[in-house]
Each structure stands twice: as C-alpha cells, then as structure tokens.
Amino acid sequence: MQKETLPGIKQFDLTGRMAIVTGGSKGLGLAMAAGLASAGANLMLVNRNADEGARAAEELARDFGVRATSFSADITNLADTEAMAKAALDTFGQIDILINSAGINIRGAIDEVTPDDFNNVFNVNVNGTWLASRAVVPHMKQRGRGSIINLASTLGLVGLANRTPYTASKGAIVNMTRALAIELAPFNINVNAICPGPFLTEMNAPIADTPEAKNFVVGATVLGRWGLLREIQGAAIFLASDAASYMVGSMLTVDGGWTAR
Predict the structure, then answer these.
(1) Residue of 63, 83, 158, 251 with fewest CB within 10 Å of its CB?
(2) Which domain holds residue 143?
C-alpha cells in the first residue's frame, strides 16, 4: 500500500470557491453564509425578498472582503432554481458549494394543522431542497467536484409532539441526503446534512418563552440554552471544505446535546 503524504495544506480554506446558500438572508442561512465568507468563499444568497437579500450580500462583502451577490427565487419553482444556477455560473463561472437552508415550520396538533399546511412545509423543505440540488448537479458533475449541504434537523432524527409536517419533512431530508450522497459520490460530489437543534431564529421566536420550549426544547438540551447563530458556522465550514472529503451521507448534529440523552 502506498504511503500517504501529508502536505501542508489549509483544509478549511475556501478561498476561490463559490457557494450558493438558499434562505441565506437571515437566520441559520445567513450565519452559515457568513461562516463560509470568513473562510474565503464567494457567495450567492438566494431568497424571495430581493431587498433583504441584497442588504445581506452587501454586508457580507463589506465585512469579509469576498464577492457576494443575491438572487430572488422561489426554490419550489423549477424555472427559478434553474435560473439560480445559471445566474451563479454567469456571475462567478463556477458552483462549488450548495447549502440548502431555506425552510419553514408550521406547528400544531394533527387535527389543527390543515392538509395545505402539511403540503406547504413539504413543498419548501423537501421539494425546494431537491430542486435546488438538481439545478447545480450537472455543473458539479462536469467539474468533477462539489459539496451539497442540506439542512435537516434533530427533528429529522427524533420526534416532538405537534410537529408532524416539520418532522416528516426533515426525516425526508435525512434520507434524501443519504440517497443523493450514494448517487453522487462517484462524481466526487459530497452530500451531507447538518441537523441543528434549538437555535433562537425567527422561526423559533414564537415559542421562545413558552413552557413547551422550556421543558421539551431548550430544557431538553444538555447545555440548557438556545444555540448561538455563530455555533452553526463551524459545521458548515467543515462540510464545505476539504477537511470533510471522507464524509458521505453523514448527519452532523449541532444541538447542545439534545439527541445525546
């Protein structure tokens, strides 16, 4: 067996790479985009609100000295996701990283949540992830490299009452990640997922001070607190970098120990 050499490379350096981040103008998406920018990656933030995306991209470019732009798109629309990929290639000439961060959550008991609610959550969380991935894969295959990072959830691994649309959608992301990882590994495209626990994002703000959160969400973590947005960044940088080249179809939990019990 040939002995491996260990050259002095910076495994976490993303300089010269280009990342698309859906849902990248706020919350965990923006935090992960900032993390990639801090490692040198150029960015395209994708979201529905054009003004919000433009402001976020401008701030990232200013703060980290990278190229950053935004693109307004509905990721549940095939034409929009294809236009997203084309715009990224026209602007940057390459797509190295895709983070599928866009998502929604509708809470409620099963007899209170409507079928439309369930379908809407699935459409954004599952169909949107599938369509965005589908849009970038041909280019990544052609280049013979790439990294796709899906946002699953600890609620894709364990259950929680009054979350049937969200938990079902994130469970689907878990197995979509595994299947896509197997499919794309021969093309040197790594597909993995981050499974965040309770972070105090806009999505979770409505339950922040409720007994449910104190008992079953934050109270169920080992650390006993909400995650800080910067605490998701290391996982994103890692999975996007050469340091994760042997990670295939993995679920990386960042949850304050919630699933460790």
Answers:
(1) 63
(2) 18-253
pLDDT tens-place string over residues 176-203: 999 999 999 999 999 999 999 988 877 7
Residue 126's CATH number: 3.40.50.720
Sheet-wide strand order for 97-100: 68-72, 42-47, 18-22, 97-100, 146-151, 189-196, 251-254
> What does R_g of the chain's alpha carbons equal in angstroms?
18
Element (H, E) at 189: strand 189-196
Token match 């960042």: residue? 254
Assign 209 a pLDDT band (cuts: 50, 70, 90). confident
Q: Half-sphere exposure of residue 101, counting CA atoms within 13 Å on the CB side?
A: 29
Distances in whole angstroms, Cα of residue 238 to Cα of each of 74, 140, 184: 28, 19, 19
Burial of 204 (0-12, 13-18, 19+ CB in 10 A): middle
258 inside domain: no
| Candidate list 71, 92, 166, 199, residue with the active-site label | 166
User: How far apart are the two ends of the chain, measured CA to CA in Å?
Assistant: 41
Residues linked to residue 146 through DSSP beta bridges, in sequence order: 189
Active site residue 246: no
Nearest to 53 by CA among 101, 105, 121, 13: 101
Domain count, the chain: 1
User: What's the farthest any 2 CA atoms get from each other in the chain?
Assistant: 61
Q: What is the pLDDT of residue 7?
A: 66
Tokens of 113: 């949540």
Secondary structure of residue 136 in the 3-state scheme? helix
Structure tokens at 27: 């919350």
